[in-house]
């Protein structure tokens, strides 16, 4: 306890320097944790879908090209297929253009079987099947606009020249993207007066071992047709989507490491200056019986405590910022799931501890092992 008090008193010796050092470490680790969170979330998403039994079927020419709705029955008859959901992108906005978020029209009946990991209650699924204007809304979108169950909302079409009025009957959670909104495709088809085409199909198979055979069978079925298909596992589909951000995610990881190295050098310089100013005090402590190891431990404890406080402030701020961004981001798809994973929190605190220990070790060790007589003579 007496050594802890001594460490705390030494930290308040130069309050301005201590506060500025903590603040500089906090800012750098805020940047580090925010940047590293992006690729970490992307890797977690891909890992979660690696064993998925869902596959995506879209037009080989690209996601912007439609497929005939008649493909659904042929896909459903494929061996090992247990559910097929037709999906049409609507792309509506709530009020203003800045209020955009992913909204899709899907078949109501097989939705429960397709996404059991989306934490949609049986009651919400039942309402979704019964009410023609029903909508299921992601938790992020609910928070962003302050929506509530039973509320009616209108989405203004941007891709299509129509508006749709929807009633919120349930929320989407679990592993679902938090910004999604699902409504019934038959309602959209009726409003468009143009039935018969879909953006893509989601297919669920009976086991992960059947994913590859089903993919091959579906693509062979529609080969050489006017609308050839490209079928992918959910993981591959998500990976292709994230390829658009691959360079950015790699850059984020690189910049995060550069930021940590930079602040480590700054912290090392600050620690060296602080210890150099205390050479006389350290020499006196040695003459009073403090061992070199004890003095080294005290100096490292001071530096470690400063770094950990900065790390906690930095990653705590990044956690709140990313949480607010995820709730209010109009970004589509998986990138709307940006958050701070627990692993990034551990990495940030580990980086803070490493900065604190590494930056002070060399000057602290040199000061603690210096000859007492030489140290006092130099000061004198």
Quick structural overview:
With 380 residues, this protein is an alpha+beta fold. The protein contains 14 helices and 11 strands.
Please tell me what the overall shape is: elongated
Proportion of residues in helical segments: 55-70%
What fraction of residues sit in β-strands? Answer: 15-25%
Q: Cα distance, first to last residue?
A: 32 Å
Kindly give the count of domains.
2
Arithmetic mean pLDDT: 82
The count of β-strands is 11
Evaluate the radius of gyration. 29 Å
Number of helices: 14
Structural category? alpha+beta
Report on the biggest sheet. Answer: 9 strands, mixed
Report strand order across the widest sheet: 6-7-5-8-4-3-10-1-11
Describe the 3D structure.
This protein is of the alpha+beta class and 380 residues long. It has two domains: 2-46 and 245-379, no CATH class; 66-226, no CATH class. It has 14 helices and eleven strands. The protein has helices at 2-11, 15-49, 71-76, 111-114, 122-130, 139-145, 185-192, 211-221, 234-242, 246-277, 279-287, 292-328, 342-368, 372-379, and strands at 54-59, 67-68, 81-89, 103-106, 134-138, 152-156, 163-172, 181-184, 197-198, 200-205, 229-233. It has a nine-stranded mixed β-sheet with strand order 6-7-5-8-4-3-10-1-11. A hairpin with a 6-residue loop joins β6 and β7. It is elongated, with a radius of gyration of 29 Å. The two termini are 32 Å apart. The mean pLDDT is 82.
């Amino acid at each position: 306890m007496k050594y802890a008090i001594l460490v705390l008193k030494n930290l308040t010796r130069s309050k301005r320097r201590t506060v500025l050092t903590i603040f500089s470490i906090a800012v750098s680790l805020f940047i580090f944790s925010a940047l590293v969170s992006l690729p970490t979330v992307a890797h977690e998403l891909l890992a979660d879908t690696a064993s998925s039994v869902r596959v995506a079927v879209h037009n080989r020419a690209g996601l912007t090209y439609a497929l005939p709705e008649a493909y659904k029955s042929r896909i459903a008859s494929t061996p090992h297929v247990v559910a097929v959901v037709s999906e049409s992108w609507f792309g509506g906005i709530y009020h203003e253009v800045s209020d955009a978020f992913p909204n899709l029209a899907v078949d109501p009946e097989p939705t429960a079987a397709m996404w059991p990991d989306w934490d949609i209650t049986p009651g919400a699924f039942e309402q979704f099947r019964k009410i023609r204007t029903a909508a299921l809304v992601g938790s992020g979108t609910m928070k962003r606009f302050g929506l509530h169950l039973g509320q009616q909302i209108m989405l203004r079409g941007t891709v299509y020249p129509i508006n749709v009025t929807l009633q919120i009957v349930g929320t989407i959670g679990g592993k679902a993207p938090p910004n999604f909104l699902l409504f019934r495709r038959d309602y959209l088809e009726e409003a468009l007066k143009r039935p018969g085409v879909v953006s893509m199909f989601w297919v669920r198979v009976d086991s992960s071992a059947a994913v590859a055979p089903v993919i091959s069978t579906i693509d062979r079925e529609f080969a050489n047709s006017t609308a050839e298909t490209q079928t992918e596992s959910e993981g591959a589909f998500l990976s292709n989507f994230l390829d658009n951000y691959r360079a950015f995610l790699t850059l984020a990881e690189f910049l995060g490491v550069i930021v940590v190295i930079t602040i480590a050098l700054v912290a090392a310089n600050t620690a060296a200056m602080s210890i150099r100013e205390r050479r006389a005090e350290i020499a006196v402590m040695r003459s009073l019986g403090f061992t070199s190891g004890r003095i080294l431990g005290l100096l490292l404890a001071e530096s470690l405590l400063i770094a950990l406080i900065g790390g906690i402030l930095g990653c705590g701020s990044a956690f709140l910022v990313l949480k607010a961004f995820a709730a209010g981001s109009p970004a589509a798809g998986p990138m709307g799931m940006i958050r701070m994973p627990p692993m990034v929190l551990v990495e940030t605190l580990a980086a803070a501890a490493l900065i604190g220990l590494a930056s002070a070790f060399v000057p602290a060790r040199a000061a603690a092992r210096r000859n007492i007589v030489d140290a006092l003579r130099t000061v004198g």
